[in-house]
Amino acid sequence: MKVKTAILGVTGAVGQEFLKLLVERDFPLESLKVLASARSAGKTVEFKGQTLTIEEATPEAFDGVELVLSSAGGSVSKKLVPEAVKRGAVVVDNTSAFRMDEGVPLIVPEVNRHVLKEHRGIIANPNCSTIIMVLPLKPLHDRWGVRRVICSTYQAVSGAGWTGIRELEQQVADLAAGREPKIEVFPQQIAYNAIPRIPQSGGVFDDGYLHEEVKMIKETVKIFGDESIHVTATCVRIPVIRCHSETLNVELVKPFTLDEVREALAGAEGVTVQDDVANNVYPVPLACSFLDDVFVGRLRVDNTLPQAVNMWICGDQIKKGAALNAIQIAEDLIRQDLVRVPA
Amino acid sequence: MKVKTAILGVTGAVGQEFLKLLVERDFPLESLKVLASARSAGKTVEFKGQTLTIEEATPEAFDGVELVLSSAGGSVSKKLVPEAVKRGAVVVDNTSAFRMDEGVPLIVPEVNRHVLKEHRGIIANPNCSTIIMVLPLKPLHDRWGVRRVICSTYQAVSGAGWTGIRELEQQVADLAAGREPKIEVFPQQIAYNAIPRIPQSGGVFDDGYLHEEVKMIKETVKIFGDESIHVTATCVRIPVIRCHSETLNVELVKPFTLDEVREALAGAEGVTVQDDVANNVYPVPLACSFLDDVFVGRLRVDNTLPQAVNMWICGDQIKKGAALNAIQIAEDLIRQDLVRVPA
Description:
The structure is a homodimer.
Chain A: E1 3-8, H1 13-24, E2 29-36, E3 44-47, E4 50-53, E5 55-56, E6 67-70, H2 74-86, E7 90-93, H3 109-112, E8 122-124, H4 128-144, E9 146-154, H5 161-176, H6 211-224, E10 230-234, E11 243-252, H7 258-266, E12 271-273, H8 285-288, E13 294-301, E14 308-316, H9 319-335
Parallel strand pairs in A: 1-2, 1-6, 2-5, 6-7, 7-8, 9-10, 12-13
Antiparallel strand pairs in A: 3-4, 9-11, 11-14, 13-14
């Protein structure tokens, strides 16, 4: 089966990664449309030796499209995704626009591909920090039950797209040249800094939690389909280009040994264990950039609570945190013969 | 009272900060000797318009010295600090050499200056990550009791001294110039990376915890003199110059409201609250560099456990994390008339 596919938001960091992954994974394309805002229409992108012309993302642009990989921002998705579905396309949407909506499966294939079949045209790709966290939680929850997770993030600037990457690079260059660095994308200078605020993900709730943090809390429950998983998070941006890291303190329901946990993680789909700190073996975001898996290390029994385990995880924000997860969803849709909007 | 003082390790990042702080705080010096390794002997440092010649740190160099501010590394301290004490000097030691020894008070003045009087010649300055953490814990423990702390650190490269700062700067410059960055001080490239390993603080225990992490766990108990405080930590180096940050999840014994917690923190010695995230008010390490206090923000009731509170803290590693805390100890010694070695 080959699919008439469109990329919505092709000029963005995730959009560009979609193009790379479609080649890399030999995605079964019948055809490929590349869509972006009016500003980019008429420009071209190279794809498998062909030159594709970017079309303006209008409702009509989705005529004849069967599958949309969408990553053009929440407000664009809210307007255009329903138009695409109305025209018979199934949309894998990488924004927060529909994630918590009933009838919209929120999918990390390794965790819950079995609910894909419930889609009504839209499948949501979770928040990047959430995706990366749930991968190592999955084997632990299956075997021991996850009761409580305390997460601190070390998030890359790619979460703010090209503009975020450029701002870090420009600030470093400005500082090296003795120029005052410009602050436009992040609330403070991100070079040589750490910022516990992720405005790209939305605002702040009255209780002081960031939208980013509440996404991790609520999306995890929806992905596992289990309200007994309690997550709390503090989200922090650091000057790393494109790979998120997180510390997780995971309290389990049933007793475990650390070796069992390591084994369960090593056997889990999409997870690679790198855990020999005495020999400097652990994941770091620079080394995990551009890779597919979520990497886990620094595994330790919590010295304050024997039913909890401490760990450190890294996952490429643009790949598994966004584009790769969406493509894997699309591949699962094809495999499960679900690339059609139910009547 | 004026004090015959010596700085041991004057060429290091902390040693240089000692010099600055002695001026800044108008420390009551009778005289000042500056000591370092044989390599630096004969070089000079400027101090209050005078040129001081660095002497080699030998046992005899401490003759006639009443107070030593020591930060020359653990192995130097192990050898020379007892020699200084033997010659009648009281030593505030910034290494881990004596911290856990009985009869050596481990002091953060805001928390436990009352045990200073138990010293027998050596007072230990705690680990930098520990100092910064215990400041906000103090008012919480006093009022509600701290039961359990889950800490993730975001540690600056200054923890590895000048060589750490230089390595980050050089790597950034090398990368900008298209050169392969050299890796000497940190186990991986630290520029644009995050490394969950702090070799400068020692090795790794069999259970996978870093020495740095166990210092935070054990030193906190000793500083508070209370074994009921349980800390677990995951320590991570990030590309920030000289200010550590930490996320803390703090479980309290007695019920609290967030406003009460904020008030208690705001009233605590050495702590400044910056907590209005909706208006981008929270500490960041860049802005807290070169400042004295530990800064606290992102205060939230833990959504998974109502008796716990989440927070984000920042404190200058070289100042409060090292040199300033040591000088404050020295000031307290003078104030309490304790600059003498008990018989």
